[in-house]
Specification:
By secondary structure, the chain is of the alpha+beta class. It is built from two helices and four strands. The protein has a four-stranded antiparallel beta sheet, covered by helices on one side. Helix 1 packs antiparallel against helix 2.
Length: about 70
């Protein structure tokens, strides 16, 4: 499954750190966080997708606590 989310991130460096952190989550086959468009795209297996998104949100909050993913 591949899904896009709105991701409010304040700087390009933080976006790169978030992308790297999400990429390390087991099961993630592809991830892209576009700082300019404020879009996060995650690709992962359907059966693990909800769990991976929850882990991705936690990883992003470690980098930037006020980041919102919708």
């Amino acid at each position: 499954m591949k899904k896009k989310f709105k991701c409010e991130v304040d700087c390009a460096a933080c976006a790169a750190k978030m992308e790297d952190a999400i990429r390390k989550i087991p099961g993630v086959s592809d991830v892209s966080l576009n700082f300019m468009m404020q879009k996060l795209t995650i690709e992962a297996p359907d059966d693990q997708f909800d769990s991976i998104v929850a882990q991705a949100v936690k990883a992003c909050h470690k980098v930037e606590p006020d980041c919102e993913i919708k």
